[in-house]
Here is the input.
Amino acid sequence: MNEYLPLKGVRICDFTAVWAGQTATMYLADMGAECIKVENPFIWNPMTRAASPRINAMVAAILPPWIAGHPPEPGPRPWNNSPAFIQVLRNKKSFTVDSRRPEGLEIVKQIIRSSDIIAENLALGTLEKLGLSDEAIRAERPDIIILHMPAFGRTGSYVEGRGYGAHIDSVAGSTILRGYRDSSPSDNAGIFAGDYWGGMHGAFALMAALRHRRRTGEGQVIEMAQVESSAHMFPQAALDAAWNGRAHHSVGNRSIEGFVPNGVFPTAGTDRWIAISCRSDQEWRALVEFLGNPAWAASAAMATVAGRAENEDALEEHLAQWTATRERDELFHALQAAGVTAGPVLHAGEAAEDPHLAATGAWKRLPATEDYPEVDWLRPAYRFTKSDIDLRTPPCLFGEHNDYVYRELLGFDEDAVERLRAEGHIASTFAPEALENG
Here is the structure.
């Protein structure tokens, strides 16, 4: 494989936060874009580098692992090893500057002049308050592509709304359409899926804008409301409500496409489950044969999807009683061999060690740094045949590329660099006031 990267030469001035925006720029960085994160050492951006700037071993033992599963001793800079956010920092560069001050704003403008994209998903109006309105940005670089990723758009009745992925999921309808069939939306935990849907749509929008600029020379200003990218994931519910007046609710693990059975069933042991789906009458017959042709499955009604759907409660109960006595992994292999769609429900640790995932080349080991140990990292989930889309550089540490940006990119001399360091623009840690407010 050669070293060609499709977006090599594209530069992103990255103001993104949390998961949605950082995911969008991550995809472009994976494809070779130089993504330069603008980070302010005087402002703790909530849920962007870590859930809290004060993670220690005691706190990490209390909070959920996906939030606080830092190394056993997180060290003095836990924002450099947060499991919730470190993955979206791969293949990127980080430099620090206090863009609220005139000199810092001028430094950002110098970055913008040499950038192809500026991306942000901050609270509405944040860039404008810094003096970086769309007009001001385009005055620095007329053909630049500007991506705004507000939660609920820049106009309309929800314009003042702020939110994380869980809030966007709820407004889009995710909360009412998932969960157990006998539960209420308030029983559901937040899953933050809106962040990743928004990130993928943001990346697609940027790619389309780059293509447009290549053909026409024109830049773009893109408004990509995250709630819209989330809502499109449920077209069947939206269209049925609009055309037929039917409101949808959660169907649990049952299929919206009419597969019966389709669910998650207990297996031997504690909290071990298997997913089984019969996507055709042929698969159903294979399952019945595998079960030993029990009497409950032999009725004429069970031979058709419609008949099975009418008796789905009883069918699931019989199937659950049978699977509960079987070992999960042996059962799923045997079912697959019999022609039945099945797979284990894995805990996070099991998923990380899954041999099928490993066989896809999903992991890449990177050396340790002073802030995180030598571990396996997820590589991009896609490959191109003619370019090296990969995990090329580890997640960027806070301020790791200050020398590159200030000395190589901007051409500042030693005296200027030292002065900016003394004034706090250049840093590898957050200022005390940022940590206090974080």
Remarks:
- The chain is about 40% helix and 10% strand.
- The chain has a mean pLDDT of 92.
